[in-house]
Each structure stands twice: as C-alpha cells, then as structure tokens.
Amino acid sequence: MTFYKYSSWMDWYKSHSSDYDGSTAMNYTDDSQGLIGLWDFLNGTADTGLEDGVAQNGKLFGHANVKDGQLHLDGHEDYMTIEGNDNPFDLGQGTIEVQFTQKEHVGTSEDVIISRGEAEDAYGGEVNTPEGYFEIGVTKDGRVYVMHIDDGKKALLKTDDCFFKEGDTLNVSYSWDENTGGTFVVQNLTDSSETTLTHDVKGLDMEIGDNDGESWTVGAREDSDYDGDYSHYFKGAIDYVAIFDNAAPQGDGYVEGTAGDDLIDINYDGDPEGDMIDNEDAILANSDLNDDVVLAGAGDDTVKAGEGNDIVYGDSKQGSAEASPVTIKIDSASAEFANKIYAYTIDPETGEISNVKLLEADARDGVGSTYEYNAAQGAVVGVGIVNEHGQFLSSGYGDNINLNSDCKVHTKGIQQVDETTVKIGFEDWYNLGDKDFNDVKITVDLGTSGASFDNAHYETSSDVGSAIVTEGAGDDQIHGEAGDDTLYGEGGNDTIDGGADDDLIYAGDGNDSVIGGDGNDTIFYGAGNDTIEGGAGDDLIDDADKVILDGADVIDAGDGNDTVYSGLGDDTIEGGTGADLIFGEGGDDSITGGSENDSIYAGDGADSVRAGTGDDSIRGEGGNDTLRGEDGNDFVDGGDGNDSVSGGAGDDTVLGGAGDDLVRGGSGNDLMEGGSGNDYIDSGSGDDTIDAGDGDDTVDAYNGSDSVLGGAGNDSIMVGWQDTEALPDLGYPGLFDADSDPENDRDFVDAGEGNNYVWTGDDRDTIYSGSGNDTILAGIDDDYVDSGAGDDLIVGGEGADTILAGDGNDTVYAGFAPDLPDDLNIPDGEDLVTNNGTDYVDAGAGNDLVFGSDDADTILGGDGDDTIDGGIDADSLIGGKGDDTIILGLPGDAHADYAEGGDDRDTFTGVGAGDTVDGGTGGDDFDTLDLTGLGKWQFNNVTTDADGDSTSGEVNFLDSLGNVTGTLKFEEIEKIIPCFTPGTVIATPMGERLVEELQVGDRVITRDNGIQRIRWVGAKNVTSLDLQRSTHLRPIMIKAGALGSGLPETDIMVSPNHRMLIANEKTSLYFEEPEVLAAAKHLLGTGGIYEVNVPSTTYIHFMFDRHEVVLSNGCWSESFQPGDYSLKGIGEEQRNEIYDLFPELKNQKGLENFEAARRSLKKHEAKLLVH
C-alpha cells in the first residue's frame, strides 16, 4: 500500500507555507498530500488549521490554553477533546504525527500525549470492543510508546529507556496499514537522535465519528464510557497534531519527488498521486505505459527512470495552473544574416544567465519560424544572437551590459505590440550585415507564461504559472536507463546517466556529471564545471550556453562518431573511438581525439590537442596552441598565435600559421608550412616538403629527400646534417665503403631572400639562397650551390661540387673549411680516388676568396679583386676582371696547373714546374709572377710581347748541380719577383752558410763579440691561410744595395719585425749614434724595400747568450732577442726550449737584462732614415 508522510512538521510547513507571517494560521485547502486533519494552534484557537478538515472543533478544559502557536497544559486536569460529529473518518491507512515538549512528568505512571477512545478497552482487558483504542504517551523513565487496538488485535511499540529527558522536543509519527502493519518513528529534535519501530499486526484501522468512545483527547486519557473521567495528564506544550489519509490517490502522470533528498526508482512510492516508475501507469498523451515524466523537485535527488522513453526534470515540480510557454519568432524580412538565436533567463539583480536554449542554429533557416521557451513563474526572459565569430550580442537587462563581450547593449530598439508581446531589433554589428531595425527583428510573445521580458518588464497575473517550473538547485542523480529518454538536471551539481538508447539530456547549471550511455545521445550542459561521458553511439555534446557562459568542463565523448562543443572555459575533451567532430571554442582546452578520423577545431585560447590514431584534421585557430596529429595522415593548422604543432607518424600536412611557431613533422613524407613569424620547423624523418614562410625561421629536416623553401627572412636551414653514419657516393679503399643508396637523401633547398644559413648532408643536394649574406655548407657528394647576391660563405665539402657564388664578396671553400681537417687532401699521385673533389666554382662579381682544395678544380673568379687558391692537383684557375691573386698550388704540389689572370693587375704565386701562367692583357694590365722561395732557376726563351710592356717565356728550375728539373711557362707577365727565402746566408768561420742549415752549437761571426756559439735555433712556418688572414705577417724584401754602400750584397727577405743595422751619416745626425737597429717593416718606402705577397714562408730564428749583430747576405742584422712580443710570436714548445736554456727570461727582470745590441728605433724615428 502506498502512503505519504513528511519527515517532520517543518518539512511539511516549509513545503506548503510560503506566505505565513508567524501570526495567523495557514489554511491549507488542497488535500492532494493526504492531510485531512491539522491542529496547529497558529490562529490562537483549538480549531483545525484546515478549512474543511475532519473533527473541526477542539474544546479546551481546565487551564489549557493556546498561546504563541502552541497548546499549553499544566498537568492538572488540563486537556483538549476533539469530537467526531462534524466530519467523521475511518482510515485503513493513515498517519498521526504530533510534536511536543514535556516540561515535567506527572506522577509515576504514563503521561498521555494523545488518545482515542476509552482506556478501559485497553487496560481493562477488553480488546474486542468494536470501537478500539489508540494512545501515544511517555513514561517516567524516558520512553515514548504507541498503543493501537482494534477488533481484537493489539500492537504496542515503545522506545528504550532514557530516549529523552524533560525539556526535549520530540516529533512522533505513527503510520498504519490494515494490510501490512505499522511504523513508529520517534525523533528527538533536541539531541538529533531517532528510532524507528515496526509491527506486522494486520487489520488495524482508525476511526472518529458520532458514536461514544470514538472521540480524541489531547493531553490526557479518557478512563470510562464518555463520562468525563480523565487521567494521566501531560504537562508541557504541544506544537501540532496532524492526521493524514494514506490511501493511494489517482495518478496524474507525473512522478513527483519531495523537497528532500529523494531516491526515485521503481520502488519509489512517495508521489502524492501514486505515480511510480515503470508501473505501467503513464496517462499523458502520446505515452506508452512505461514512458515516465519525473519531477524530482528540490533536494539532492537520485532518479532512475528505468524502461521506456522517459523525461526527467531534476529540480522541477508541478505548477499551480496550466500555462503556455513563451513563444519567440524570427520576424525579419531578410534571411541574409547567419547567426544563432538563443533564449535564456536573466537574474534581474546580477545579470546572471541560466536555462539557455538554442532556438535556431542558423537564423537564415528560421525566418518566419516560431519557437517555444519554458520560463518559470516570475522569470525574466532574454533573447540573444551569437554571430559566426562566436560573439554574443544580448538584448541586455538594464545596466547589466556586461553580458556582451564589447560591453555594449546591442538592441536597436524595443517595440511593444500588445500587453504581452514585444519586438526587438539588433544593431548592425559584428558581421550581422547591413540590417536596420526592421530587418533584424525578433518577436517575443510572453502569452500566459508568467514571465517578463528584459528591458520591457511586462508583468502578467501572479496566479498564472508554467506547467513545469524550476523548484530549486538540488544535487540530483538521474538515471534514464533503457529507452529514448529526455533528462533535465537543471540547477545543482547533478549526476545524470542516460542509459541505453537515444537520450536527450539537459544537464543545466551546476557542476554536473553526465553519462550518455549507449545510443545516439544529445547532451546539453550549462554553466559550471561539468564532467560528460558520451558513451557508445553517435553523440552530440554541446554547451547549451555556447559562448555565453563558461566552465572548466571534462568531456569524454566515448565510442561512436561524436560531435562535441565545449564552450568557454578551460575544458578537457576526450573524443574516444570514432570519427569525432570537436569544437573547443573558448578557453584553454585540452583535447584528445582518440581513434579514427577526427576533426578538431580548438577555438580561442591556449589549447592542447592530441588527435590520436586516424587521419585527423586539427585547426588551432586563435591562441598559443599545442597540437599533435600523432598516428595517421593528419592535417594540422596552428592558426594564429605562437603554436607548437606536430604531425607525428604518417604523411602529414602541418601548418604553423601566424606567429612564432614550433612545427614538427614526425615520421612520414610530410608537407609543412611555417607561415608568418619566426618559426622553428623540425621535419623528422621522411621525404618532406617544407615552406618556412616569412620570418627568421629555423628548419631542421633530418634524413630523407627533402624540399625546403626558406621564404623571406634570415633563415637557418639544416637538412640531413645529423646523419653521422652517412657515406660518400664514392668509397675510399681502406677507409670506408661507397654509399649503398646514393639517392635516398637528395635535398632541394631554396633559402630565399635574407642572410641565410644552410647546411645539407648526404647525397647530391641542390641549394639556392637568393640575395643576402649567406652561409652554405653543402655536405658530402656532388652538390649544386647557387648562393645568389650577397657576401656569402660557401663550403662545398666532399664531392665534385658545382658552386655559383653570384654577386658579392664571397668566400668559397670548394672542399672542406680550414677548421675541419681533410685527411684525403692528397695529391693525385698518391690519391686512390682522384675524382671525389673535382669542383667547379664560378665566384661571380665581387672581391671573392676561393679555395679549391683536393683534386683538379676549375675556378672562375669573375669580376672583382679575387684571391684564388687552387690547392693541390692540376687545377684550372681563371681570375677574370680585377686585380686578382692566383695561388696555383701548395709547396710540393707537382701537378701542372693552368692559371689565367684575365684583365687588370694580377699576381701569380705558388707556381711550380709544369704550370702554365697567362697574365692576360685586358684592362689596367700589370701582371706579376712571384717566384719567391723556389730555389735556383733560370729564364729560357724569354721574349718581349708586342705591347712592349710584358714578357713571355719559360722558367727552368735547377737542382744543386744546375740540371733542369722542370719548366714553368708564362705569358703576358709584366713583373717577375726573383727572391730567395729560405736561402739567406750567414757568415761563419767556415764561410757563408744557409740559415736553414744552422744548428745549435754552430759558430757564427758577430760584430761585437767575435765568434759565438748558437744556443737555440727555431723556425715558424707561416701558411697561405695565415698570410691571407694576417697580411701584416708578410715578409719584407730588401733588394741588393737598398741599405746603401752596396748592402746587402744580394737580395734578402726577412720577417717584418726583423731589425737591420743602419750605419750612415743620418744615424749620427738624428740619434747621436753611429749605428742603430731598425725593423724591416719600418723601412718600407725606401727604394728597393717592399712587402712581398708570398703563398707561404718560414721565419728562422737563432739566439746567442746575448743579443748579437750577425752578417747576413753581406749586411749586418740582429740575432733573436727574447721579449714579450717576440716570445709570443713563437710556439709554446719553442718558448719552453728558451726558458730551459735561460730560465731567468720567465720574469720581467730577466727580459730587461737581455739588452739590445744597439739602440732600436721606433717607427717614427726610422722614417727619418727612409729616402
């Protein structure tokens, strides 16, 4: 049997007395809750609080009185009787509830709170009387009891001793059912204790009527047959007495909860009309027997809807009258604006939005359409537009214009049509189109909804309410279970499980947890931090508030092809299995696509996206996003902001978009674009295509045959350089094998405009760089390099490279750069592979520096003053226009080079036997052939050319016996430098000896101290590269007789700091010294003394116990004098040798004591001697 019972009077009172002011009784007229009798003493009388309640009148005896909403009894013949002749009842199911406070116990036996009938029926042993007997009372030892007797049956229930003490307030409820038994619930409201007792005595009912012995007594027991004999009086106060008829009422089609925390499932029987879950009692239109509508009401409820296509409202109840919803019509004459139309409820004090409903996703499709919106009694309704850019335009409410992202009210105007209808027009704003008030217009008809419209405030009658109204924000649990359910969580932190089949779920506001379950579910969630699980099926999960409200939501779409809109807020989204469509919208979202082919639009904010497996499409849109395509052939577009995007495994398309992006391709043959901004692009493995775009980009392409476009900006492009195990296409016997796949890492690079850095690795690469000062490292194998205009640095590396340096002052190393030793830079006579470095270089216009290195190179200097060093092997060197310096080879290079100077003043050095030199005749022609350091030679077949300024012929190189060892051919040479270095001769007691032959211990003639033994000999080799980097190291040539008096006797070439002895009339005149020492470089300008541009040289030093003046090539010059400068100019090993011999030179005092043999002139002093 179904029965209804409130847990306490206060629960009932709060549910039904919304307007009680504490001074008058609340006359409750609706008996739908089963309340048939109520004595609440609120009106100051003993009458029932119900207008048509049973046993209407109560009669007071003794000193009993009603005051402050209570019946007060003093325990001395005070009581109240209730006669049954007005409206009798006979209840087979019912509840009696009484609330009281005992002030003091009277006597030693029971004190009676309420009784019915005569006590002798119970205590006299007569239990078979037809009238029966009922009593609730208390004992002196703190027990509360109930006795129920009827038709020979008796039930007695009582609490333990000491359940209460005097002064405690107790709430006592006794419910009976003649078919099942009874329940006795006693609550001590003072100490919050509670006990529940039951009995299974059947056949008990309760009566009040005209017969004797059927009256009720409050505060005492009637002892005999209606003769006014009473006893067992109660001393204290009674708050109320209530009687409920628990008989099952007729259902109304709605399973209603209470104001408390309800569990509404198939066992729930608390609906006042008897409606139950899956009870085959559905009566609403178009409903099957188990299609339930659940109104859970206030409180933290749990709803399990069971079978059928159910509708569940988590926080709603039945309203007081039938009402039509608000109707909203898109009334525009034009359908050209593509916007979403929403209705919502606005808090008029705070402007907070709730109960948001999407009316139309595309207003163009809804012109002329009418939509319904359920609004609560007294609600304030608003209508807004969300444009295609996600901007919310509200009709506004008073001063609460903060609803709009730009803090403007967007209503063009509000026009009243009739008492309940208004028209609103929106401004021309944010791509709404060129519309005026008449075009962008929406009609809102409040009808009988009981709502008002924001900005208009059209109020309607207060006695009209909506059919279903929101009662409160409870934390509900709702289970749809089987069937196509419609579930409303509404306010509060709800837990909703749609269960099987295709459910429609409205989570509402609050921090909700929603599980869609199996089936193609549609889930709308509102404000708050929600957790959503779509479950299996093709689900639609949408933030009902769209861009209006936010919240940090957690969404797991589950299996199936799902569509997810996360709205504003920092959301976490898991797409799960299936081809999902995910919109992150606003906020810093974390999105995982899961398996299969997903499409993800991250929206605004700093989003993090992992697409998972499948061929996915990801668009970061606004914000600094982190996007990962992961497995599959993905499309990834970072959009605006400084993004980190990666394709992962598969053949991906990865776009950085605007901003300074980090772009990663991963494995696979990827297409990558950096877009605008200073991007870093890491292509990973595979044959990738990369367009870095504008900005100063960095590209790291790894292995594979990649194609890279640098675009505008100063780019750094590194392609395949990381492969440390790469092998040249041509192997080298004994060192490494040939590349087994010479085509798998062939790269194409067009670095574009700007000062670019390009480094490629294995295989035959093609490199273009455009204008700008570029650095290009071509790596191994036969590369093609076109650096374009600008001052470029190009390193061809291993392989037979083709290099076009273009305009600008370029530096080209056709082989390896000098900081990278080349162990295979070997003359062809010893080289086992003679074609792995045969380079072709066209230096182009500009003053270029070109090094050919190993093998037979072809180098064209082009226009400009170029320096060309062919390196070893038989090279072809063409200077072109300009004053070029052409170095045919290194010392010991026996291969025949061909050198052609072209126009202007060219210098040829590093020549040797077998070489051919053509100075050329064009331009400002004055070509020099430098034979410095080549030992003995002689001219042969020398002729004067037709111009009369140049000569042509041969130079025969001789051995020590005068035999010809080789021949140099030359043409159109205007000047030949015949110098000998080494080859300087030093005077010794044994005659003149070559300086390079002197050793420690040899005796030498000195000017001051006779014959002295050499204590130390050292040599410093100055390479071609040293001389090019540091031109001040070039040696000084002193021609025979240049120092006067026929000295030196023969040409002598010394280091620039080597000091020569000067003795003439000027030394005495200017310095009052007959002899002085002057550095050779300070004598430049004197006739016959000049700097020599040699390919390389060796400076030989020897030292005595003191600084000496020795005879060299017939003139006097100094020996080595240790000092700060001179010691720094020799190697550490030689410096340590000197310190071992002269340890005192380690300190400044020792250096000062090693005095110069003569006064040493400063530069400005030496200039006085120049003539």
From TrEMBL:
Residues 688-699 have a biased composition (Acidic residues). Keywords: Secreted. Residues 978-1124 form the Hedgehog/Intein (Hint) domain. Residues 398-445 form the DUF4114 domain. GO terms for cellular component: extracellular region. Its main location: secreted. It is found in: Secreted. GO terms for molecular function: calcium ion binding. It holds the Pfam family HemolysinCabind. GO terms for biological process: intein-mediated protein splicing. The keyword RNA-binding does not apply. InterPro entries: ConA-like_dom_sf, DUF4114, Hedgehog/Intein_dom, Hemolysin-typ_Ca-bd_CS, Hemolysn_Ca-bd, Hint_dom_sf, Intein_N, RTX_toxin/Mannuronan_C5-epim. PROSITE patterns: HEMOLYSIN_CALCIUM, INTEIN_N_TER. Residues 584-707 are annotated as: Disordered. This is Putative hemolysin-type calcium-binding repeat family protein.
